[in-house]
Amino acid sequence: MGHVSVIEQEFHRIRRLPPYVFAEVNAMKAAARARGDDIIDFGMGNPDSPTPQHIVDKLVETVQNPRTHGYSNSRGIPGLRRALAGYYRRRFDVDLDPETEVVATIGSKEGLANLAQAITSPGDIILAPNPSYPIHMFGFIIAGAAIRSVPASPGRDFLDALERAVRHSVPRPIAVVINFPSNPTAEVCDLGFYEQVVGFCRDNGIYVLSDIAYAEIYFDGRPPPSILQVSGAKDVAVEFSSLSKTYSMPGWRIGFAAGNPKLIAALARVKSYVDYGAFTPIQVAAAAALNGPQDCVQTVRDLYRERRDVLVEGLVSAGWPVPLPPASMFCWAPIPEPFRAMGSLAFSKLLLAEAKVAVSPGVGFGEHGDGHVRLALVENKHRTRQALRSIRSFLSRHHNGAPVPKPEIAVS
């Protein structure tokens, strides 16, 4: 009959996802390591510090109780939701109702993706920064939305883009995603920016989805604000946070959504169908993290600051001008001039092939990231200095725009 079998068809939602560009660098990295090469890896933002001992101890203590081994609570156990509310009260002077304004998520990534499923109809328009962390765009693309890009930087250009989107988008946008401190650009914003965003979105009936996963990793003495500090923000805003970076708990997969009760209820409703929540001992230990001593957070902050200073000072000294990030665990590095025309993916491959240093190509965060690469502060000072020596040598070989070979390197 000439019909195409189900197996041969491409699935609609998968067809909307472009190739995962990080996979190309990861394949090269794996092949190099298989050959015995020592690759210094600034690619993935995977914290290398151990989870603080008191948090681990609480997990071990709790897991000994077999009553914690059953299904958990998809919204988060009450003690964990109260702990998150306590954090917001201490840190931001924001009051949250743990019953109606907080949901525990299996990492902020899961929360964003499931909220996208909850609120998106096919063809809805979502405003997302470009460049941005991939889930900010693709969580909604998977849910059937169309994405309109807005600038990743806070300021007038962002606000002008919001106004243009409302005037010219059909249908009108239903939500805007913001992320400060930003992954990948490490930029921060102030409360005044949040006030302008909330005011505009309240006036125009647009939800605001704020991601503050890096709010505790800051270096200039000014703690980044929460959008929920703005009067009236709960009318339109929900905010995602995570314990992954703050407490070096990335594999534990614990995060939160907090704010607008309607959005929180929608997320909780979807989650009630698709998961039973994180393992209860993990939730109990996460509550211990939020309620317990916070000196471990300062220790992590100091570690990233120290690594940031070594990396950025070394890159600048080597002739690669990279701005000093005020927050996050990333450096957002403009591609050096001799290599700029080749784009971030080819440059990342070349750096890996010649300097044995892995970075994330900026194009993986959106087309407007293609002039940069992202370096994560996940290697210790000794390994960072080793990488800097290799990068210095690499740059000197291509000094003054010497011909740059195309990195045609097999990855199999």
Describe the structure.
- 42% of the residues lie in helices and 13% in strands.
- It has 412 residues and is α/β, with parallel strands linked by helices.
- It has 2 domains: 6-50 and 296-401, Alpha-Beta Complex (Aspartate Aminotransferase, domain 1); 53-291, 3-Layer(aba) Sandwich (Aspartate Aminotransferase, domain 2), CATH 3.40.640.10.
- The strands form 3 sheets. The chain has a 7-stranded mixed sheet, sandwiched between helices.
- Residues 406-412 have low confidence and may be disordered.
Strand order of the largest sheet: 2-8-7-6-5-3-4
User: What is the string of helix and strand elements?
Assistant: HHEHHEHEHEHEHEEEHHHEHEEEH
The CATH architecture name of the largest domain reads 3-Layer(aba) Sandwich
Could you state the CATH homologous superfamily of the largest domain? Type I PLP-dependent aspartate aminotransferase-like (Major domain)
Rounded mean pLDDT score:
92
Are there runs of 5+ residues with pLDDT below 50, and where? 406-412
| Overall morphology | globular
Q: What's the β-strand tally? A: 12
- Tally of DSSP helical segments: 13
Defining key terms:
single chain, 412 residues, alpha/beta, Aspartate Aminotransferase, domain 1, 13% strand
